[in-house]
From TrEMBL:
One of its GO terms (cellular component) is plasma membrane. Signal peptide: none annotated. It comes from the Bacteria. It is found in: Cell membrane. The keyword tRNA processing does not apply. Coiled coil: none annotated. This is Cation:proton antiporter subunit C. It comes from Sinomonas puerhi. It is a multi-pass membrane protein. The chain crosses the membrane at residues 6-27, 39-60, 72-96.
């Protein structure tokens, strides 16, 4: 078993968190959050990977003893991608609205919330 994919997932997560912590622009923060979340794709793929396994399509070429990849992990990775796209688009829409109303995208220059 190789741990290379787990290290890559951890490095991508740390890179996204470091960018998020040092960001002074909300668009940059949203992109860094998306990078941090993309580490979960790598992690899910690493968990579901099996050396020598084939896609779980059973037919004449796949016997009963042929190792297959777990399709649940692949479905989770696809769901994660869809959720990430939705969250990123929603956050970017909020940043655009904030830039239109307040004319600033730096979180330090934002005033208190008004209701």
């Amino acid at each position: 078993m190789t741990y290379y994919a787990y290290f890559v997932a951890g490095a991508v997560m740390l890179l996204g968190i470091a960018g998020l912590a040092t960001s002074r622009n909300l668009v940059h923060a949203v992109v860094c959050l998306s990078v941090a979340q993309s580490a979960t794709y790598i992690l899910l793929i690493a968990v579901g990977y099996q050396s020598g396994a084939v896609a779980p399509i059973f037919g004449a070429q796949t016997g009963r003893d042929t190792p297959v990849v777990d399709p649940v992990v692949q479905a989770l990775a696809l769901t994660d991608i869809v959720v990430s796209a939705a969250v990123t688009s929603m956050l970017l829409a909020l940043v655009v609205q904030m830039a239109k109303r307040r004319r600033v995208v730096d979180p330090d220059h934002l005033g208190p919330l008004e209701g």
